[in-house]
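User: Before I run my own analysis I want an independent prediction to cross-check against. Here's the chain; please return only the structure tokens and, at the end, one sentence I can use as a sanity check.
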Amino acid sequence: MANLRACGCGAAFVPHRDSQKFCSRRCAALARPSRPSRPRCRRTAAQPNPFILRLLEIQPLERRARGGWRFGTRRISDGAADRLIASGRAEIIGGQYLQLVPQATGEAT
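Assistant: Structure tokens:
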């Protein structure tokens, strides 16, 4: 007669190999401790995209008719513009242009 083993769920089973400890994959998954979820990498309001900041140094962004912003033919999302505005690095002028806000350097003039 084959060796019967007891699973964590209380069932008896015949192992297929010597290292088998559970009756099924489901029981093994339930016995395994849960892993913490990985944090997603997202830009915060304090870290706007440096590429868009460089574009704003050249000229202001224009509002697109279908939403979003554009620099020439390059499209910029509303979310990226919102992050720039929230961080205080850009402002909307006249409802059509997103322009870079001059930052105070702290030097006496």
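Sanity check: The longest strand covers residues 90-93.
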